[in-house]
Write a structure and sequence with these properties.
The protein has 392 residues and is of the alpha/beta class. The protein has 18 helices and 11 strands.
């Protein structure tokens, strides 16, 4: 299989999670991603359990399918080497304050003057034009600002963060999408572009998909917040011996469910006769469902839902995913082997191209590919030796 982004070269200065996730997506799709690291390396190299220093669990999760070079951009030789890499690149991406990059001569105008076809992508906490521009931001901060913690408070009674780095992961996906769009635009225009990807705006858009709700209209027709998603009863249903996830949604689903539980009279109940009315009375509806599901085992309900065509499934632990028969059958996980670290389990790229899953490689050790990358950029061997021996 020829990977879709084969031939695209990405110079990636991003660190931690959001940016590395975005560039990992590009690497998964076949781009040659060159991870440019400061002499100390990306901090996630030390985050989580590890067998070898600098190769910790979180780094593994966000940096597969990349090559690494160490460059000290505070030193002239390191900056010069980076500029040589940019000359042959398609994408330059960073999550550094623009003012700092401009002082280093690495702003968009300077780099696109050297390489007019360059897609220059900045991944920031906030849009630079607004009053929050330039402020530092991490996932927790953005979850608070963008409504995530408020949604948890509405449903559970107190503000909490989603138990996942949702702002980093969501913005990383949007960044990869935006960079791909810019590359597509370049194919017709012949010129690169400057792409700004701010976490705050990305997560505001993410949460307002369903939760803008009545404020979609002016004047508002209802409060913000999609009632079904915010219902305190929206959770896995308790059965006689455990829990299941079940979601009757259409009129046909509910008709089948009410008949199955012997509650035909509810078919004529105005509160539950349409999606609009069920949404307005979602707490009452879910309370009723809970009372019915307590009467049979999880296996009984899963079998019934399968027979009735109602979407349902068990709760799987994170550990159970590792042995899930569906993921095993589709070849989702890869077991890779490293002579020092040993066996490493890698989640696969979740999409297929012509029936094939793109290959994955282990994340790079710090500076592992520096010599190879510098030689490819056209530096002679002696210059490469001087640069590497000087600490880049």
């Amino acid at each position: 299989m020829t990977a879709p982004l084969s031939g695209i070269r990405v110079i990636d200065l991003t660190t931690i999670a959001m940016g590395p996730l975005a560039s990992q997506w590009l690497g998964d799709l076949g781009a040659d991603v060159i991870k440019v690291e400061a002499p100390g390396g990306d901090s996630t190299r030390q985050t989580g359990p590890s067998i070898e220093s600098g190769m910790a669990a979180l780094f593994f999760s966000t940096n597969r399918n990349k090559r690494s070079i160490v460059l000290d951009l505070k030193r002239g030789p390191g900056r010069d080497a980076l500029l040589k890499l940019v000359d042959g690149a398609d994408v330059f991406m960073h999550n550094i304050r623009p003012q700092k990059l401009a002082r280093l001569g690495l702003g968009p105008d300077a780099l696109q003057a050297r390489n007019p076809r360059l897609v220059y992508a900045g991944l920031h906490g906030f849009g630079e034009a607004g009053p929050y521009g330039g402020k530092p931001a991490y996932d927790d901060i953005i979850q608070g600002l963008s409504g995530c913690a408020d949604l948890m408070a509405r449903q559970g009674g107190e503000p909490r963060y989603f138990p996942t780095i949702t702002a980093d992961k969501t913005t990383g996906l949007i960044a990869a999408l935006a960079i791909l769009a810019a590359l597509t635009g370049r194919a017709s225009s012949g010129r690169g572009s400057v792409v700004e990807i701010p976490m705050f705006e990305c997560m505001a858009a993410f949460n307002l998909v369903e939760h803008l709700y009545g404020h979609q209209f002016e004047p508002p027709l209802a409060a913000t917040g999609y009632p079904r998603a915010l219902s305190r009863e929206r959770r896995p249903f308790k059965t006689l011996d455990g829990y299941i996830c079940m979601m009757p949604y259409t009129d046909a689903h509910w008709r089948e469910f009410f008949q199955e539980v012997g509650a035909d009279k509810l078919l004529a109940d105005a509160r539950f006769g349409s999606i609009a009315m069920r949404t307005a009375h979602i707490d009452e509806l879910y309370e009723l469902v809970s009372s019915f599901l307590l009467k049979k085992s999880s296996a009984d309900w899963l079998a019934a839902c399968e027979r009735l065509g109602i979407p349902a499934g068990p709760i799987l632990s994170l550990e159970a995913l590792l042995a899930d028969p569906h993921l095993r059958e589709v070849g989702f996980f890869n077991m890779l082997h490293d002579p020092v670290i040993g066996a490493v389990r890698m989640p696969g790229v979740p999409v297929l191209f012509d029936g094939e899953r793109p290959k994955t490689t282990l994340p790079p050790r710090l500076g592992e590919h520096g010599r190879q990358i510098l030689l490819e950029a056209g530096l002679d061997a002696k210059a490469v030796d001087r640069l590497l021996n000087a600490g880049s």
